Amino acid sequence: MSVAKAMSQARHKGKTAFIPYITAGDPDLATTAEALRLLDTLGADVIEVGMPFSDPYADGPVIQASAARALSAGVTTDAVMSMLKEVTPELSCPVVIFSYFNPIARRGTGSFTAAAREAGVRGLIVPDLPYIETGVLRNEAIKNDIELVLLTTPSTKADMMNEITIASEGFVYLVSINGVTGARPDVNPRVKDLLKEIKQVTNKAVAVGFGISTPDHIRQVAQWGADGVIIGSAMVKQLGEADSPREGLKRLEVYARSLKDALS
């Protein structure tokens, strides 16, 4: 199923899409595979899988530490793709890779997107690639039937936001804050107006991410009209900071259920 279709199905059911994020390979790839199965069973509409990278500068300390653990355990892009190729056929929801541009450029945009397609991946998010530089990657993504999800932020100018919204595939990713990922006490109130502005120029689904971590955050963003909520750092913390993979999966299940329940 495409990312756009998954978002559309959630919207037709009158619900806000639940989009959890986990880092590939933290604590290990076998646990990542189990986490994907678990999140799918719990009703995730789309799952983001973070490709570990040594300088994830859009991310806060939780995801930075998670990526560092995965890399120190020897996780590679090839290993992540192999794991996804095994797991994606079992999932009912689409998987989106969240990757900085460096790992994509090292492999080559054509090779990376072809490998992603082969692995059953349906979408791609590249947080550090400016919209004006996405042309080559967008062409390769289209060739390989990969939806390139683009990001807009509170500081994106209106004309650029319009262009990004029109070009984005799967959904429009609204970054709730100017700054790095990580849990925050409250959701930026500007998100309410930004959602309205984006929805004036598109019928595409809009998902809000960065700083979303509690059931109250999720209810607030859903009430403001978001079509999806993305939960990253707080999700990653459940797996990465547990004493064992088994305990991490249990913590992930309890936490994911609490968030999913907030959307019902």
From TrEMBL:
It catalyses: (1S,2R)-1-C-(indol-3-yl)glycerol 3-phosphate + L-serine = D-glyceraldehyde 3-phosphate + L-tryptophan + H2O. One of its GO terms (molecular function) is tryptophan synthase activity. The keyword Lyase applies. The lineage of its organism: Eukaryota, Viridiplantae, Streptophyta, Embryophyta, Tracheophyta. It comes from Aegilops tauschii subsp. strangulata (Goatgrass). This is Uncharacterized protein. Keywords: Amino-acid biosynthesis, Aromatic amino acid biosynthesis, Lyase, Tryptophan biosynthesis. It holds the Pfam family Trp_syntA. One of its GO terms (cellular component) is cytosol. Gene3D superfamilies: Aldolase class I. Pathway: Amino-acid biosynthesis; L-tryptophan biosynthesis; L-tryptophan from chorismate: step 5/5. InterPro entries: Aldolase_TIM (IPR013785), RibuloseP-bd_barrel (IPR011060), Trp_synthase_alpha_AS (IPR018204), Trp_synthase_suA (IPR002028). PROSITE patterns: TRP_SYNTHASE_ALPHA (PS00167). Belongs to the TrpA family.
